[in-house]
Amino acid sequence: MVAIFAFVAGLAFGVGLILAGMANPAKVLGFLDIAGRWDPSLLFVMGGAIAVGLVAFAIARRRTASALGLPMQLPTSRTIDARLVGGSLLFGIGWGLAGFCPGPALVALGAGYGKAAVFVAAMVAGMAAVDFIERNRQRGRSMTPGASGA
């Protein structure tokens, strides 16, 4: 049952991205080109997403279980650190260069866009690199004399 709802939610999200133009890199790059031929139409998409997200998170914070009976797992950290800022910068640079962010890139990949395949490959490589670095950092911490292992 959970898989069916996940599939339907993902399908609705993908269709929404296509209808909103978020899977079209030219549309996204037009939005980001504030010094040139700026296309502000994606502001409505983002505004709508923020409004829905605010309502959804307000409801979710009051619940202990999802509609499917699964435990609610909301982020609790409010820390702004170098990793968050660095990741945000990398996200923004990638979005500005390619016109894709992860969700729309997967939708565009499914639609057969070659540029999306390159972006998704680079995204997966980046995720693997971060995983590798984090594992080595954790391993290094646990091998340090007197380390607590955390």
Descriptive tags:
globular; 6 helices; mainly alpha; 150 residues; single chain
Structural write-up:
The chain is mainly alpha-helical. It has one domain (2-143). 69% of the residues lie in helices and 0% in strands. The protein is built from six helices and no strands. α1 packs across α5 (102-110) and α5 (102-110) crosses α6 (114-143). The two termini are 36 Å apart.
Question: How is this fold's topology laid out?
Answer:
Elements: H1 2-20, H2 25-32, H3 42-61, H4 82-98, H5 102-110, H6 114-143
Helix pairs in contact: 1-5, 2-4, 5-6
Short structural description:
The chain is mostly helical.
Report the strand count.
Answer: 0
Low-confidence stretches: none
Helix percentage: 55-70%
Overall form:
globular
For the biggest sheet, the summary is: none
User: Compute the gyration radius: what is it?
Assistant: 19 Å
Total helical segments? 6
Number of domain modules:
1
Structural class: mainly alpha
